[in-house]
């Protein structure tokens, strides 16, 4: 183990989401004395677990993508994923039902997927192969030149190799415009754009470089960790504690106070001073609620100008009987989904014709439901900030279940034996997400790469950000990398003997 001078350095980590756990593991491995504070009884943040009457639900992420990033994380600590959980590759990746009665299974094999594309549009099979080749290039360039090195500042992009890499990427078009240059059929465009949901974006506001997500889908594969995604969270926590991090749950941080020789973490009436502090809470919440007013210099209205990824309406359902018509991942898509995206990003409203994602992990893993039952999670992306009072939620529940029945031909309502829900209020109140966003800052052109908050909190020495609203961005793999980058920033600052003091212009 190489400690890079962190022996004896006290680091407090505020929040035990994926980013906070990853940072804790890396920092403890470097020799730091790490104390992690998590206000809930379990770590994981939005990536939680709900257990009711023999049913087990992942409350947050349910897609295991980019397996190479998980392997990289565990290998760093002398492990591999199989030390903690068993993976199963899904085929089909997902099933799609459209509102016109059409249905397809999207296969894991790219050649079979090319055949599917060709069946909808002449020449689309070859166009799909070209698109995947370009997506692989975008992924390799993006990961090797930008994401893995942790380039979070504008000055990091001025080197020759980075500028050369950037020329290989489409940085100006939206993804929708870019996809249209390959295929015209609207359903095929949807199949190439759906993965943006994982990034909290829209095809109409997300840069074309995120075509790399199609390589994530078709090139790297879609997996499921038996037992559910929370098995992964517990594995990351195990690595952090194995390396020496001290994890405290059920403790709420009420303030973060810069001092002359460190940063104080306040827990109600208690106060603990650390040499450095890493915040896995949303940056806007940290700056508006935890830090002293004005501690981080920002241009007026900075946070009000940010674009947040969607919130979500979620139903966690224990359903009696078998759901043979559903795949592990099932999508119910309107043939014209632009009005739903408009209702999220342009004119916030409850969608009239919602796009519904249905996750049925018991199709792959019978352990998550009692015999003769299925565990079902439905998710509808929503605009953050919507009023989700009881009457509104009850009406929307009916709309969602109507949509599932209409698209798939299966009505769940009379078969539900367990039901829980979550919506805007839960994300705002339980996780301090601005506006109740489920994902954090969206990946728009002005909130990508160095235009997202980096690990160093400008204007506050010794304070750092980690997690989905910081660089590199949203998703469990990116949060794992965010923890690594944050630990690198701490180690570099300690080793350098001076702190990064780049002027803050409210980026």
Helix vs. strand class: alpha/beta
Let me know the number of strands.
19
Number of domains: 3
State the strand order across the main sheet.
7-6-15-16-17-14-18
Tell me which CATH architecture of the largest domain applies here. Answer: 3-Layer(bba) Sandwich
State the end-to-end distance: 36 Å
Q: What's the helix count?
A: 14
Q: Which range best describes the helical content: under 10%, 10-25%, 25-40%, 40-55%, 55-70% or over 70%?
A: 25-40%
* CATH top level label of the largest domain: Alpha Beta
Radius of gyration: 22 Å
What are the segments in which pLDDT stays under 50 over at least 5 consecutive residues?
152-168, 498-507
How would you characterize this protein structure?
- Residues 19-490 form the Amine oxidase domain.
- This is Phytoene desaturase family protein.
- Keywords: Carotenoid biosynthesis, Oxidoreductase.
- The chain has helices at 18-29, 67-76, 110-120, 124-147, 160-166, 175-180, 186-193, 212-219, 230-242, 283-290, 338-345, 390-408, 424-431, 476-496, and strands at residues 10-14, 33-38, 49-52, 55-58, 87-89, 94-98, 103-106, 223-225, 246-249, 255-259, 262-267, 270-274, 276-279, 311-320, 329-333, 356-359, 373-382, 416-422, 463-465.
- It has 507 residues and is α/β, with parallel strands linked by helices.
- It folds into three domains: 10-47 and 228-305 and 441-496, FAD/NAD(P)-binding domain, CATH 3.50.50.60; 111-217, Guanine Nucleotide Dissociation Inhibitor, domain 1 (Orthogonal Bundle); 308-431, Guanine Nucleotide Dissociation Inhibitor, domain 2 (2-Layer Sandwich).
- It has a seven-stranded mixed beta sheet.
- A hairpin with a 2-residue loop joins strand 3 and strand 4.
């Amino acid at each position: 183990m190489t400690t890079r001078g962190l022996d004896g350095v006290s680091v407090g980590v505020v929040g035990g989401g994926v980013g906070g756990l990853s940072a804790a593991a890396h920092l403890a491995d470097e020799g730091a004395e790490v104390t992690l504070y998590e206000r809930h009884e379990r770590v994981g943040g939005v990536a939680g677990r709900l257990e009711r009457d023999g049913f087990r639900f992942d409350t947050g992420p349910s897609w295991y993508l980019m397996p190479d990033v998980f392997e990289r994380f565990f290998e760093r600590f002398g492990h591999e994923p199989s030390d903690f959980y068993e993976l199963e590759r899904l085929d089909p990746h997902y099933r799609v039902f459209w509102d016109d009665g059409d249905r397809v299974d999207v296969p894991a094999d790219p050649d079979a997927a090319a055949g599917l594309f060709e069946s909808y549009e002449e020449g689309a099979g070859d166009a799909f192969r070209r698109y995947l080749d370009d997506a692989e290039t975008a992924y390799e360039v993006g990961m090797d030149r930008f994401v893995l090195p942790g380039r979070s500042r504008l000055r990091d992009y001025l080197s020759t190799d980075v500028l050369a890499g950037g020329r290989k990427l489409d940085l100006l078009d939206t993804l929708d415009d870019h996809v249209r240059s390959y295929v015209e059929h609207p359903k095929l465009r949807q199949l190439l754009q759906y993965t943006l949901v994982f990034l909290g974006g829209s095809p109409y506001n997300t840069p074309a470089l995120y075509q790399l997500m199609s390589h994530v889908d078709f090139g790297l594969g879609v997996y499921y960790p038996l037992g559910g995604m929370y098995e992964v969270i517990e594995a990351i926590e195990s690595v952090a504690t194995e390396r020496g991090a001290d994890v405290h749950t059920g403790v709420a941080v009420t303030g973060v106070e810069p001092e002359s020789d460190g940063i104080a973490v306040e827990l109600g009436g208690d106060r603990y001073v650390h040499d450095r502090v890493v915040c896995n809470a949303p940056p806007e919440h940290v700056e508006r609620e935890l830090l002293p007013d004005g501690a981080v210099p920002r241009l007026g209205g900075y946070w009000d100008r940010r674009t947040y990824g969607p919130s979500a309406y979620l139903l966690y359902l224990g359903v009696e009987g078998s759901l043979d018509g559903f795949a592990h991942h099932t999508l119910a898509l309107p043939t014209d989904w632009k009005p739903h995206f408009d209702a999220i990003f342009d004119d916030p409203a409850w969608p009239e014709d919602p796009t519904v994602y249905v996750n049925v992990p018991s199709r792959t893993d019978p352990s998550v439901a009692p015999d003769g039952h299925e565990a079902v999670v439905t998710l509808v992306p929503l605009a953050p900030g919507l009023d989700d009072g009881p009457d509104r939620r009850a009406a929307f529940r009916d709309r969602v279940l109507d949509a599932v029945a209409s698209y798939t031909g299966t009505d769940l309502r009379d078969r539900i034996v367990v039901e829980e829900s979550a919506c805007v209020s839960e994300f705002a109140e339980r996780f301090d997400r601005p506006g109740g966003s489920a994902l954090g800052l969206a990946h728009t052109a002005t909130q990508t790469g160095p235009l997202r908050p980096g690990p160093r909190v400008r204007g506050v020495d010794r304070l750092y950000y980690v997690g989905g609203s910081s660089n590199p961005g949203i998703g469990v793999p990116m949060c794992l990398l965010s923890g690594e980058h944050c630990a690198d920033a701490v180690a570099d600052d300690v080793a350098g003997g001076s702190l990064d003091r780049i002027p803050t212009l409210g980026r």
